[in-house]
Amino acid sequence: MTCVKSITIICMAAGLFSGCVSMPDFDATQGTPPELQAEIDAIKGFPKTSSTPQTPTDLPTPEQFDRSALYLLSLTDAFDNSDVLTEASPQEIEATRQRFLNRVNGYTLDDPS
C-alpha cells in the first residue's frame, strides 16, 4: 500500500472515530437528559412545532400537474422573439456594454479609498 493511501485511511479513521468521542452518554428511550434539556430551553427563538405551517390540502394530482406543465411548455415553444431582435453594429454593442459596465461600477465613484 502506498504512503498516500495509508495516510488517507488513517485520516478517514480518525475523522470517523472523532465523532464518537464527544457524544453524550444517554439513553434515548429515557427522554432528554436534564443538562441537554437545559441547553435546549436556553436557545432563544427556537421554533415551536405549533407554529409550523399546515400541510397544504389543495395540491394538484400528478395528472393535473402534468397537464399544466405540458400546457406551459407548449406556450414557451410557441414563443418567437425574432421580431424583437435588431441588428446592432459592433460599435453599438460596445457602447451598450460600456454603458452597462459604467452602471455596474458606478458605486465606486464616491468611494474615498
Summed up:
This protein has 113 residues and is mostly helical. The chain has helices at 3-21, 34-42, 62-78, 90-104.
Report on this model:
The protein has 113 residues and is mainly α. 53% of the residues lie in helices and 0% in strands. It has helices at 3-21, 34-42, 62-78, 90-104. The longest helix has 19 residues, at 3-21. The mean pLDDT is 80.
Q: Please mark out the parts with pLDDT under 50 across 5 or more consecutive residues, or reply none.
A: none
For the record, give the distance between the C-alpha atoms at the N and C termini, rounded to a whole number: 56 Å
Reading the helices and strands in chain order gives HHHH
- Structural shape: extended
Estimated share of beta-strand residues: under 5%
Mean pLDDT: 80
Strand-pairing-aware structural class: mainly alpha
Rg for CA atoms:
30 Å
**How would a crystallographer describe the biggest sheet?**
none
Per DSSP, the total helix count is 4
Helix percent reads 40-55%
β-strand number = 0
Draw up the topology in text.
Blueprint: H1 3-21, H2 34-42, H3 62-78, H4 90-104
Record keyword descriptors for this entry.
single chain; 113 residues; mainly alpha; 0% strand
